[in-house]
Amino acid sequence: RTRRFSSVLRIRNYASMAVHKFFQDEGFYLIHTPVITQNDCEGAGEVFSVE
Prior knowledge:
Helices cover 47% and strands 0% of the residues. It has one helix and no strands. It is flat and about 45 Å long. It comes from Nephila pilipes. This is Putative asparagine--tRNA ligase, mitochondrial. One of its GO terms (molecular function) is ATP binding. It holds the Pfam family tRNA-synt_2.
């Protein structure tokens, strides 16, 4: 079970890195965008409103 799980993780890593490298080579940029939700986290929702 552990060997199978680690094999799956390695395959997923290889596939993810191949896709990442392809787009990087094509001139795309990896951007991590912020997540906007309706949940009020730590009281910060009172300061900002999203319409």
